[in-house]
Amino acid sequence: MNLTKSLIAWYLQNKRDLPWRHTINPYHIWLSEIMLQQTRVAQGMPYYFAFTSAFPTVFDLANASEEQVLKLWQGLGYYSRARNLHQTAQYVAFELDGIFPNNYNDLIKLKGIGDYTAAAIASFSFNENVPVVDGNVFRVLSRYFDIETDIANASAKKEFAALAYELMPKDNPAIFNQAMMEFGAIQCVPKNPDCSICVLNSGCLALKLNKVNQLPVKSKKAKAKNRFFNYVIFSDANENSIIQKRSDKGIWHNLYEFPLIESENEIDFDVFSDELLRRNFIQNPITSISELNEISQIHKLTHQHLHIKFWKVNVTETLENALEIETLKTFPFPIVIFNFIEKHWP
């Protein structure tokens, strides 16, 4: 069977109607690809519409403040994507006169754009003959051709890209790349795909060898690190509170949070109280401390699990630099903190 023709025919009949498939504008393609990294389409779609509405052109995005961008990104996670997005928009707008590079080699030089994203923009916007290799492509090709290469290895992408390039129709690379990714997203799914209705089942080696659920091969990730965050919700006589900006590199860089006590393990009331007094966050006398047990939670990130607990600390008089709740909500927060504000304030 001809894998390429079958795949494209399947795509034309089954593809999802996604907004970024109705354009070859590299700005819109770039936005969608950055947003869909580590993110499901259903989750990313509202953000795509929000960004294209707030920032119709790369100039609009470039002229926005970082806080505006982070606020609009709030809840999508992996916030370094948003910071890189903003910096790249500024570079394209102010250094390249708003014109995106029209080829893979120049696109990959832009901040936040890696192999996959550069290939996607190059092929979808400029029809360049460059294969797009993501998790979906690894899965489809490894199963169809029974490839046992560990996709966690750095050399795997080169091997799979070479195979995809061989299969790619050189007169229409964009549709092939779209078809391959879409097929992996909705037909050749990671767990228990319905191979009985698969248009590639007659030639799929993994199906013949009963190895569908064994491919692709991927070595296990390192165990996630546990971190314990104790957020201090100060509340003064006006029920206003204080927040701070995370300036350290790492998770949630440049987002806002409440004063934080990070501990090596979960702490009880006495330890928290002692640590709170030692930190000397504020000068106001404390009238009460309460642990908000019902909203303690584990927030799972790729390489770490955050055990988050909120503590309410009432103080007398008014806090210096305190904010009203409606003002406080306008700042960009990690979604776990913003949800706390929305649901449990004051």
TrEMBL record:
Broad class of enzyme this protein falls into: hydrolase
Catalysed reaction equations from the record: Hydrolyzes free adenine bases from 7,8-dihydro-8-oxoguanine:adenine mismatched double-stranded DNA, leaving an apurinic site
The alphabetical list of record keywords is: 4Fe-4S, DNA damage, DNA repair, Glycosidase, Hydrolase, Iron, Iron-sulfur, Metal-binding
Task: Supply one GO BP term.
Answer: mismatch repair
The cofactor note reads:
Binds 1 [4Fe-4S] cluster.
SUPFAM superfamilies attached to this UniProt entry: DNA-glycosylase, Nudix
The keyword Ribonucleoprotein is assigned to this record: no
Cofactor(s), names only, from the UniProt record: [4Fe-4S] cluster
One Pfam family hit: NUDIX_4
User: Could you cite one Gene Ontology molecular function of this protein?
Assistant: oxidized purine DNA binding
Specify whether Transport is a keyword of the entry. Answer: no
SMART domains referenced in this protein's UniProt entry, alphabetically: ENDO3c
Q: Which residues form a coiled coil?
A: none
Q: What is its EC number?
A: 3.2.2.31
Q: In what residue span(s) does the HhH-GPD domain sit?
A: 35-186
List, alphabetically, the InterPro entries matched: A/G_AdeGlyc_MutY, DNA_glycosylase, HhH-GPD_domain, HhH_base_excis_C, HhH_motif, MIG/MutY, MutY_C, NUDIX_hydrolase-like_dom_sf
**Highest taxon above the source species:** Bacteria
What is this protein's function per UniProt?
Adenine glycosylase active on G-A mispairs. MutY also corrects error-prone DNA synthesis past GO lesions which are due to the oxidatively damaged form of guanine: 7,8-dihydro-8-oxoguanine (8-oxo-dGTP).
The record's similarity note reads: Belongs to the Nth/MutY family.
Q: What is this protein called?
A: Adenine DNA glycosylase
